[in-house]
Write a structure and sequence with these properties.
globular; binds zinc ion; 3-stranded parallel beta sheet; Aminopeptidase; 2 helices; about 100 residues; two-stranded antiparallel ribbon
Length: about 100
């Protein structure tokens, strides 16, 4: 069965994530996600993005949005993009969908 990919740009809107050296996590995760979306389209791989702009997605809304495209089945891959500032063990909570 062909895989489908949901690209999750971490953070967004009222939640900027981390920042350092003028880089804000929510902006960089969106750029990375837009690039992945373009490449998957070029490769003919079905894919969707949880957000396409500077949108706030709450902790319960994000997994609902992620599952809204292809459901919750084993042929769906979720890529959740985060950029940590370093110096720790990470700050992001990932929920498998
Ligand atoms: Zn993050």
């Amino acid at each position: 069965m062909a895989k489908k990919i949901v690209i999750d740009a971490g953070h967004g809107g009222a939640d900027p994530g981390t920042s350092a050296n003028g880089i804000v996590e929510k902006d960089l995760t969106l750029k990375i996600s837009e690039y992945l979306h373009q490449r998957f389209d070029e490769l003919g791989i079905p894919n969707e993005m949880t957000r396409t702009g500077d949108t706030t997605l709450g902790p319960s809304e994000r997994p609902k949005r992620a599952q809204s495209f292809y459901g919750n089945s084993s042929d769906v891959i979720l890529l959740s993009n985060h950029i940590n500032a370093g110096g720790g063990e990470g700050h992001c909570v990932t929920k498998e969908v």
